[in-house]
């Protein structure tokens, strides 16, 4: 039997299962229904006090309750839900013995204010420093679970316990490109022959007060708080910043040969991955877009695809003035005249920016676009920006046959990963 290889002799990487959790809900069907209806999941925050904050809204996941609430605990719970859905669709069950490696995109871990306060208020000698109070708390063993959760590896470790992958789980944090990086790592492992299947997950629950304040101090967040559902407006002239959000996306990857041999339904292919970073600034990408252009070009080259083959771009589209313009400049540089005929929409207009999870969530949305023949819209596009002449699929979803999607993920510090996702080949 002829093996399914790409033009360079590497195994074709198929996607046989997907799962998703966002502020719109849990599962592919619920999310797809609301995405294509142009609904927003952005609401006023009720999770913590918002008095005195400039930004008081986010895309919070409320469909998965966690007690006691902490960012790592919700990050794990969302990832488990997305991965279980992906594994069930793939036909590989829901654990606990996944037959390949696990790659998890997850945010940096740190103690949040409620946990810090609990530690500090722990009984200690009068006048003791915070450090001595921390030591006193550690000696009691009362905070063992807190110690376990607030470590960078804790999310991947918990998921490994739940799904039983082969080998140690790999955690990755490349800012807002992390979810795409996790997929890239899985694809590369399969191409190298190290595995026949891999589970890639992006998950993030950074909607907590400290992170919100930090992004606000960077003037990165929208302050359109009176109408939260209209705050995220990618590519619109009156965009004023991104909206923080949380969620998770999971993909089961495997060689096309393996998927066919076991009779699995092939949703699509990960045809190519492109990565490029720059050292321009701690948070900003280089203004001329060279690193973004390089990531897009590398993704197309890795896929063996011409610009004209891209039928839709799932944009990074954060709704920040600088980033949206830079993405247009970069797309124009690579796709050229073809860009004018290519729909480019941003799901962040509806679900917000899910940070470390964004690349995985948007890969799921991109593959649903191919699989279901519908292009999600960009909502809140009321004032076109003459400097960004894109077909953003404004307001209303559009029917259309899409064979290949370019999915962009651009992170703080100039960390950029692009994916080319393709339709399932005929048997």
Describe the structure.
- This protein is an alpha/beta fold and 427 residues long.
- It folds into two domains: 13-110 and 150-423, Thiolase/Chalcone synthase (Peroxisomal Thiolase, Chain A, domain 1); 115-148, no CATH class.
- It is built from 13 helices and 15 strands.
- It has helices at 28-36, 71-90, 113-120, 130-140, 144-149, 154-163, 178-191, 209-217, 256-261, 290-303, 321-335, 348-351, 358-372, and strands spanning 13-22, 25-26, 43-44, 57-58, 102-105, 170-172, 197-204, 247-255, 268-277, 312-314, 344-345, 374-375, 398-399, 404-411, 415-423.
- The strands form three sheets. Strands 1, 2, 5, 6, 7, 8, 9, 10, 11, 14 and 15 form an eleven-stranded mixed beta sheet that branches. The chain has a two-stranded antiparallel sheet with strand order 3-4.
- Helix 2 packs parallel to helix 6, helix 7 (178-191) crosses helix 13 (358-372) and helix 10 (290-303) crosses helix 11 (321-335).
- The longest helix is centred in the N-terminal third of the chain and has 20 residues, at 71-90.
- The radius of gyration is 21 Å and the shape is globular.
- The protein starts with 12 loop residues before the first strand and ends with a strand.
- The relative contact order is 0.19.
- The model has no long low-confidence stretch (mean pLDDT 92).
